[in-house]
Amino acid sequence: MTREEALTILQEMTSSESLLRHARTVELVMRAYANKLGENEEEWGVTGLLHDADYQAYPDQHPNVIVNLLRERGDEKIAHAISAHYTKWGVSYDTTLDKGLLACDEITGFIVACAQVRPQRLEGLEAKSVIKKLGQKSFAASVDRDEVRIGAEQFGVDMKEHIDFIIQVLQQHQDELQLQPQASSQV
């Protein structure tokens, strides 16, 4: 599946700007990890882009709608990774792609949440600040901290290094993601 085909599917099921941005941020991080690990960037990017494609339109059936659509198209590897991107669904982690998506989904969303409450957004954001925020259960309360921890463990990455990597990827795209520093109000 091409990125263009995936984007069409995503846009047919998702209109929420925040969900579309989340899909794009996870896509960017997955592509960067694929590049770093010598994996298929298009496959990893499409997986990141589509992992929550059905969440807005079919919240009670998520991720089954997108997984079934991908399976019908013959994209079993992507379908499996998406079916496994939450540990409580009980799906096995068979490939690096499966583990990568699990490791990148929740923490990428959390890092974006951290950036959004800072005037300088991603600029100067450090892993230690993100880790400190992870300890504050009331901040971005919908982010499952166990998923963040298990994802890093499954993927075999150090949490600090993982967060630093994601921040660096997002910083390269901060204009597109509308996460650039706020203009100073000083005259």
UniProtKB/TrEMBL annotation:
Transmembrane segments: none annotated. Pfam families: HD. It comes from the Bacteria. Residues 20-90 form the HD domain. This is HD domain-containing protein. It comes from Pontibacter ruber.
